[in-house]
Amino acid sequence: MSQLEFAHVTKKYGDFEALSAFTLSVQKGELISIVGPSGCGKTTALRIAAGFEKFDAGRLIVNGNNIELVPPQKRNMGMVFQSYSLFPHLTVAENIGFGLTIRKTEKKKRASVVSDMLDLVRLVDVGHRYPHQLSGGQQQRVALARALAIEPTVLLLDEPLNALDAKVRIEVREEIRSLQKRIGTTTLFVTHDQEEALTISDRVCVMSNGVIQQVGTPREVYDNPSTAFVATFIGETNSMVIGGKEVLVRPEHTRVVNDAEPDSYRGIVQSFSFAGPLQTVVVRMSVDGSLVRATMTNTGGVNWTIGQEIGVVFDCLVPLK
Amino acid sequence: MGGPVGSRASTTSGRWSPSLVLPLLPYFTFVGLFLLVPTVVLFTKAFRPVTGSTTSAMVEAMNASNRSSFMFSLKISFFSAILGAIVGFLFALAVSRIERPRRLRNIVTGFSGVAANLGGIPLAFAFIASLGAQGLFTRVLYHNGIDLYGAGFKIYDFWGIVVVYLYFQIPLMLLVMLPAIDGLRPTWREAAINIGASSSQYWRRVGLPILTPSLLGGTLLLFANAFSAYATAYALSSGGSRLVPVQIRFYLQGNTITGKGNLGYALAAWMVVILLFVMTGYLLLRRRAERWRAA
Amino acid sequence: MNRRRTTWEWPVIIVVGAFFIIPMLAMTRFAMQRVPMSLLGRETIFSRWTIRGLMNTISDDKFQPAFFMSVRLGIVTVLLVLALLLPTVLWLHLRAMRWKILAEIVSLLAYVVPPIALVVGVSGAYRDTVPWIVSSNYGLVPLYAILCFPFAYRTLDVGFAALDLHTLVNASRSLGASWQQTFRKVLIPNLRTAILTTSFLAFAVVIGEFAISSLLLKRTLPTYMLEAQGREPQGAMGVALLLLVLTTVLFMALGRIQKKSPTSSSQEIRITP
User: Fold this and answer.
1) C244 contacts in B (CB within 8 Å)?
2) C242: Cα within 13 Å, side-chain hemisphere
């Protein structure tokens, strides 16, 4: 059942189209990521949903109602920002309970919700502290709790992991996912990191220059990219010109072999790196001079040397549409 | 926000190690010589009795007859601080929200820097020219039926001085509040609105509370500023004002005649005591404001 | 939420602006118009404007010594303040972070001890032992420097804090630069805005300072202006106006320099203690 629906939403800044006929239907209880490079329009879409931006054409529908004219305060969509969104003059508990304070929730109920939220994000004894006393990861967890405390119709996440260190990033993203599954909140997650999108989402929406490139499950988007952009943006891709046509193939479907096998293409090893379970070889193909990356599991004993002539086998070649 | 991680030297060799403290000596010695020593001397003299009495001048300075000038100064400082703070804050808020013309902010800040720091003489002149007995504005009001001086207004009396002091109080408050207002992150506003707050609820629960340390600190600064002001009052009243700084001068200049020199010292010493409390409050509030801004 | 609706902002700015501009206009009229107030009306508003009063005062033989004295005092004070505070704040940020809070408190003491109390104390303490302090004009300089410390320390403190000091110094030293070279070629250029702000502000404070110079019976520009007011009121007013205008232009120039600086963040460097 569709909970949030963008129907041909277009947003222009002067002549520049930040969003072109953006159409996306977010199902109840799913976590869908909008992923793309900077400036692709993903944050614009999110802010339109929240009510911070108006749009020029199309419709925005929540649970069957057109919410275009509903002010952001009344949309009941909890949002988590990139950073610095916690109120510095309030304690963690007061921050989390802020939405309830505004809604004039009775004190006891508010305290119980806040305590539940603190449990949920595993920050139980931290309620009395102030934001500046917390680490970045802790702050984002509090921000998440604050957004969830109001039982939002849709949870909006605006690149929430951007400002965090690499290791903390992974912890917090897993926490977001497990929380979301547990509570079942419909979630819209915006990020430029395709690995993030693939690991935690039910569905992924890939965008570029204001236009949706593909929407599908992580596996669909990875195994069956529908445009060259999706193929290169999601995961790594080798691209070559064979027989006059441009073809794409993933490094894990590329193998380097010593002897000339049938269906192998000749090439020269450019570089070789051994990383334990995986090894990577970069080859310059004789057929069109392009560089191709082969990622193979370590089958034991084989070392490739630079300048060596070898054969490259592709397990599945995808011609570009 | 700490600073660069670089205190390794101080932690290993100890806080009081000579190599650490030596380069700081010129600064501290300078302040010691030209500020602390004079203050100590001042207090020493202030505790001596006034000629012809046995009680210390410090106590005598606070008796019923001498207290009035103190109360006068405190009242003026208080009123000009509160008024200056309110108007200055609103002015700063207005300037921060105006986006065009873009030069406006630079002009306002530049002029405020001058008005707040240039000192009282040009200021006093400006007000004599506008609100003095022969002032331009006085004349304009007269033509429109308002006789200021006929009603007993004098530019060196209470309300006259308050109005004149506003000329440097408002700009000073602007200079304090502009950075504080800039420090209100847009994400705070968006987060508040997103979670259900209206614009006025945002101001009441988030914006104003966060600005409060700066507002209070700024008011204290304005108070200290008015309390110590000398030049303006002196120039407006030709040296005969009831304000404490001018009174101190009166006592000290004629001290061989009146024998009340120590009373002058005592009044000055009391000023220092009051300002010590005010500036301590200011410093604490400023640090609180910074902590929130960095969070 | 894109375009801001401004409703009350411009009225407030205009009213407050009027409060500030009207006295300046009154000063201008007083200084430059030879029409007595009682005769001033719609018909006479544009008659008899002259800068003769101002010129008289500037050529007055007491003006120039007072003016140049103030300028000299200003320059020397700026140099003293920078010479004292730059190395101190550098050292505090580089090695002696723990002393910062004390240094900051100390810098604010000038606000605790008002000029009159300071003069009284200095006079009492040093009049007999170091008479130069009260007799020489340049004895004013240390007192002026103390007066400047609150905002000077703060400005430089903020300026240093904006740099990644340790990285810059380590990078410079590792490339072979001596301490002096590092200071001159790496630190000072990056602190240009803070240094200029401190200097302009200190200069403005000194050139307008009245209390200390008057109490110590010195002849500086402000004491001159007050005294000239009795003799040549129009000229004195003209000089005061000129001073206000020139300093405002100076500060506006400072504002533009602050904006263009690569090291200043979006905030203007505050010029308050």
Assistant:
1) 114, 118, 122, 126
2) 18
What is the maximal distance between C-alpha atoms in chain C?
75
The predicted model gives B262-289 an average pLDDT of 90
Higher pLDDT, C69 or B54: C69
Other residues' Cβ atoms within 10 Å of the Cβ of residue B8: 10
- Give the best-scoring range by mean pLDDT among A217-221, B242-246, C2-6, C36-40: A217-221
Contact C267, C159 (CB under 8 A): no
Nearest to A138 by CA among A99, A100, A165, A114: A165
DSSP state of A253: G
Given this model, what pLDDT does residue B239 score? Answer: 65
Q: Do B197 and A73 touch (CB under 8 A)?
A: yes
Task: Output the six-digit token pair for C186.
Answer: 């790496």
Which stretch of DSSP H or E encloses residue A207?
A: strand A203-208
Q: Which residue has the higher pLDDT, C258 or A151?
A: A151
- What are the pLDDT digits (tens) for B178-189? 999 998 999 999
Residues of chain A contacting residue C2, judged by C-beta atoms under 8 Å apart:
53-54
User: Where exactly are the structural domains of chain B?
Assistant: 57-292
Chain C CB contacts of A46 under 8 Å are none
Which chains does chain A touch, 3 or more C-beta pairs < 8 A?
B, C
Is A140 exposed, middle or buried (CB count within 10 Å of its CB: 0-12, 13-18, 19+)? Answer: buried
Provide the pLDDT for residue B220.
Answer: 95
Q: Which residues of C, range 45-104, sit inside 8 Å of B by Cβ?
A: 84-85, 87-88, 91-100, 103-104
Alpha helices (H) along chain B: 8-13, 18-21, 25-31, 37-46, 57-60, 64-97, 104-117, 120-131, 136-143, 158-182, 186-194, 199-202, 208-228, 231-237, 244-253, 255-258, 261-294
Q: Which two tokens stand for residue B6?
A: 């670089």
The closest CB to that of B295, out of A73, A102, A131, belongs to A131
Q: How confident is the model at residue B9 (pLDDT cuts 50, 70, 90)?
A: very low
How many other C-beta atoms can be found within 10 angstroms of the C-beta atom of residue C155? 28
Q: Rounded to a whole number, what is the distance in Å from the CA of B116 to chain C's nearest CA?
A: 9
* CATH dotted code for B57-292: 1.10.3720.10
Residue A32 pLDDT level (bands cut at 50, 70, 90): very high
When the pLDDT of each residue in chain A is averaged and rounded to a whole number, the result is 91
CATH match for C61-260 among 3.40.50.1110, 3.30.1440.10, 3.40.350.10, 1.10.3720.10: 1.10.3720.10
Output the pLDDT for position B238. 72
- Best A73, A129, A153 member to test B by mutation, with max B CBs in 10 Å, is A73
B23 CB neighbour count, 10 Å cutoff: 16
At C2, which amino acid appears? N
List chain B residues with CB under 8 Å of C197.
Answer: none
Rg, chain C, Cα only? 23
CB of A150 within 8 Å of a chain B CB? The answer is yes
Of B25, B14, B13, B30, give the one whose Cα is nearest residue C88: B25
Token digits for A194? 């395709």
Q: What is the ipTM of this complex?
A: 0.88
- A227: CB partners within 8 A, 6+ apart: A213, A214, A321
Q: How far apart are CA C21 and CA C17, in angstroms?
A: 6
d(CA B185, CA A13): 24
Going from N- to C-terminal start, the domains of chain C cover 1-50, 61-260
**Rg of the Cα trace of chain A?**
24
User: Do A277 and A297 contact (CB within 8 A), yes or no?
Assistant: yes
In this prediction, residue C107 carries a pLDDT of: 92
What confidence tens digit (pLDDT) does each residue in B122-178 have?
888 888 888 887 788 888 888 787 777 777 777 777 888 898 999 999 999 999 999
